[in-house]
Amino acid sequence: MSSAATVAANQDMLGQTCQQMCALMAERGLPAYRGRQLFQALHRQLVETPEEISVLPRAVRTELAAEASLQPLSLAGIFESLDGTRRYLFKVHDGYSIETVWIPDRGRVTLCLSSQAGCPMRCAFCATATLGLQRNLTAGEIVAQVLYVLRDTVRQRQQPRPAAVNLVLMGMGEPLLNYDHVLHALRVLADPEGLHIVPRRVTLSTVGIVPRIIALGREPDRPRLAVSLTAATDELRARLMPVNLTYPLEALREACLAFPRHPGERITFEYVLLDGVNDSEDQARALLRWLAPLRAQEAAKVNLIPHNPVPGIPFRPPKLERVLRFQALLRAKGLPTYLRRPRGQDISAACGMLAATSGPSAS
User: Cα Rg for the chain, rounded, in angstroms?
Assistant: First the structure.
């Protein structure tokens, strides 16, 4: 390799844009178009090893096989739900576990991606929080989740390639605490020479890291924003989500009000309903009050998520009639409010259940 920088880049080859791959080939003294051929083979043709890229000279394939990391993830298990959801359990090179979820829905597919191994945010209702933070994922490890799942679907299962793929950064980790790698991974995935998953098909969910929300709003090409809220009073939210002690609700709301939106775009506020904790009519009214300035700008919508039970976490979902009453109170004030249907609950793949379990279900 021509430089230490090039070696470092090759070690995370899947985290390279097409332009970066062209530059790497040029540094090797090869025509830049060889980088485009490599990028397209990885992202469009979903090849797994350099040996499969027949358009590249044999010597280049041999060098790539020796030097480049095209398989930063190893599969530890695939768990399939009765509803069609699949949970992929991966190991990264240093042994940590991460998870990715395939969610099919009427011809469309959503991939739920992890941004960290574990999570540092300590949300009381989330299984991932029990792991703590192990490390940030590289851009290549984030991209690899998408490529592996698509490769498994198309090449192993012989299923049709999805016509449309949506991405949600809602798996393990707080994506805004891995800001640079997450944003670069999304640029790679949006590259028109590859999968071309454009920002409007990507949603990033955060617990509310206020400075990074502000920074994200300044990005020229950014994903849609979702905020995990779960309580509309500082006292309750601080108990459930310790991030509120650092970034309280007023600061979070100001960041959301200042967040630039495209025409018709709304910020999604995710509200995990916990029986007897945050599901009362008073809590619904508190949520309406907190969202009032955003409602006035038609800048908010709410996803209600009945808690998905996990052993060792002392919460349970409310009864359906209580959930529907909560939803009705919000809708009566004109707030778009949706009830999220749990997907993959039987394989520990639903919201709040990811904890790198090696069996179908944690129960």
Answer: 21
Whether residue 10 is found in the same domain as residue 100: no
What pTM was computed for the model? Answer: 0.94
Please classify residue 280 by burial: count the beta carbons closer than 10 Å to its beta carbon, then call 0-12 exposed, 13-18 middle and 19+ buried. middle
Active-site residue (options: 99, 112, 141, 256): 99
Residue 123 annotated as lining a ligand binding site:
yes
Determine whether 99 is an active site residue.
yes
Q: Which two tokens stand for residue 292?
A: 């009032």
Q: Which two tokens stand for residue 300?
A: 């908010």
pLDDT digits (tens, 9 = 90+) for 182-225: 999 999 999 999 999 999 999 999 999 999 999 999 999 999 99
Q: 167 and 250: one domain? A: yes
Q: Are strands 97-105 and 86-92 parallel, antiparallel or unpaired?
A: antiparallel
| The predicted structure's pLDDT at residue 8 | 38
205 is in an annotated binding site: yes
Residues 33 and 166 reside in one and the same domain: no
Domain holding 233, by residue range, is 73-347
